[in-house]
Design goal:
The protein has 6 helices and 5 strands; from the N terminus they run αβαβααβαββα. By secondary structure, it is α/β, with parallel strands linked by helices.
């Protein structure tokens, strides 16, 4: 069991290092876009399913409350949290539209949509990004995979950050690292040390 634990940790760290080495410029672009969005009075709309929905909530909380610096709240919204909205759209229309309708209701040009999905293939995420692009919102995706990096989402999103592994757990662990780096750097850029 000790060997398996050590191997798992090494594989996770290896996935994070491979991503970081290949994608530092894209991480910096996400940080810049997030800062620009907040400074211009826009908001960050975050979407995801399952564990990625939990990541969306986590990241929104870090921006609205704080990450490391006590500062004013920043407008980030996880579109994964309102069960009445999600279940009414799912029931009355389709689960594929749970993020589309929220983006239509809340999104404005100048806002930034961050889609978190390990596969990049979830229909509700792909349709939401298509809607955001039609509405002139910038779009970013955190995805994973090696055979079709970014999935369908990778073909349409403005900025793709793809973790080069097929292990879902290691993709999610890397996504959390990315989210924390973005939160920390955005705070530093906007509020100093």
């Amino acid at each position: 069991m000790k060997t398996e634990i050590s191997t798992n940790l090494l594989q996770s760290v290896t996935a994070q290092q491979a991503f970081a080495e290949a994608s530092t410029d894209r991480i910096m672009q996400l940080i810049d876009w997030t800062v620009e969005t907040f400074r211009a009075g826009g908001k960050l709309l975050i979407i995801g399913n399952g564990g990625s929905a939990a990541d969306a909530q986590h990241m929104a909380a870090e921006f609205v409350n704080r990450f490391k610096i006590d500062r004013r709240p920043l407008p980030a919204v996880a579109l994964t949290t309102d069960t009445s909205i999600i279940t009414s759209i799912g029931n009355d229309f389709s689960f594929d539209l749970i993020f589309v309708k929220q983006i239509q209701a809340l999104g404005n040009p100048g806002d930034l949509v961050l889609a978190i999905t390990t596969s990049g293939k979830s229909p509700n995420i792909v349709q939401a990004v298509e809607t955001a692009k039609d509405m002139e919102l910038k779009t970013v995706a955190l995805t994973g995979g090696t055979s079709f990096p970014g999935g369908d989402l990778g073909l349409i999103v403005d900025l793709l950050l793809n973790v080069p592994t097929d292990c879902t757990a290691h993709i999610q662990e890397t996504h959390l690292w990315i989210e924390h780096v973005v939160c920390e750097m955005v705070e530093k850029e906007m509020f100093g040390k």
